[in-house]
């Protein structure tokens, strides 16, 4: 398994202008990451020229583009807002294909106030169905993340996967910090996983934060023959300039040791 870093890990510095995307790449080289997930939020100008430039900057540094990511709510009952998220995803499929990103992370979202989970579920499935032909056309797999809402549990994630037309262009982006019962839920999700986001901690059923058990994560993924990226998403309150290197040592021991 390979180790990558999401630009999201340095979100505050990128948003404040304290770090550029090329500065992020340099930090990843220093920390010996294999690749980078180029989160859409942090591009100054999302156009073809900028993504091509960043693709070159990754290449000259020996970094693979492990993927890209958009923020979406496919459950939104507002038709215009939901259509905008579908269009945004299509746009970033195009940009991702230019950068050589093999997948694009999306969120399902959740029911709005007064809405039902069933209605939200049906909207989400319809959006994913609509996006599948575009994913195939661009050669970029859709990675649906377990990210609260109607993907809070492994059972909910499986329900969506079963409902969407069977396609090699849809997978699960496993977020190790978003299940409350990882020992039970990770094995349920693992057969559909082609990408992984690694968090330092997760909230358990007791409401407390616990360190993610990366021996468990490695074992479950290895049992499914997973050989892809473990992409760090650093969310802890510590400054990422010290927190990311510290977490990197945890991931190195688990996946390179």
Task: Explain what this protein looks like in three dimensions.
By secondary structure, this protein is of the alpha/beta class. It has a single domain (2-255), classed as Divalent-metal-dependent TIM barrel enzymes (TIM Barrel, Alpha-Beta Barrel). The chain has 9 helices and 10 strands. It has helices spanning 11-16, 21-30, 48-60, 79-99, 117-138, 154-163, 182-189, 214-223, 240-255, and strands at 2-6, 35-39, 64-69, 103-106, 141-145, 170-175, 193-198, 201-203, 209-211, 229-232. The strands form 2 sheets. An 8-stranded parallel beta barrel has the order 1-2-3-4-5-6-7-10, surrounded by 4 helices. A two-stranded antiparallel ribbon has the order 8-9. Helix 3 packs across helix 4, helix 4 (79-99) runs parallel beside helix 5 (117-138) and helix 6 (154-163) runs parallel beside helix 7. The protein starts with a strand and ends with a helix. The model has no long low-confidence stretch (mean pLDDT 96).
